[in-house]
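> run fold Insulin-like growth factor 1 receptor
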Amino acid sequence: MYAFVAVDNQQLQYLWDWKQHNLSISAGKLFFRANPKLCMSEIRKMWNKTGIQGHFEESDFRNNGDRASCESTILRFKSNSTMSTRIKLTWQRYRPTDFRDLISFIVYYKEA
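> ok
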């Protein structure tokens, strides 16, 4: 039985302002599916704050957050070379704990 269900919310990123509000769930669990911008950390936070009994299983919520930048890591650059029309960046190899979590690398720059 589920006490809270969130399915197919394309823009959902945050669940609750835990500093302003409390929420208790005495019976039932959480159900989240196909919320592409909702990170696992938000679901885990709600699980912990509501007092749900039982172990949190990330695999139950894996199909959320696939279009969000949920975790960021600072890459350590080894070199860069600049030409008139392009720049080449090289960084130390990054190895996430689960390669399914790595969708792509995104580099932002600002022209100076």
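Helices lie at 40-50.
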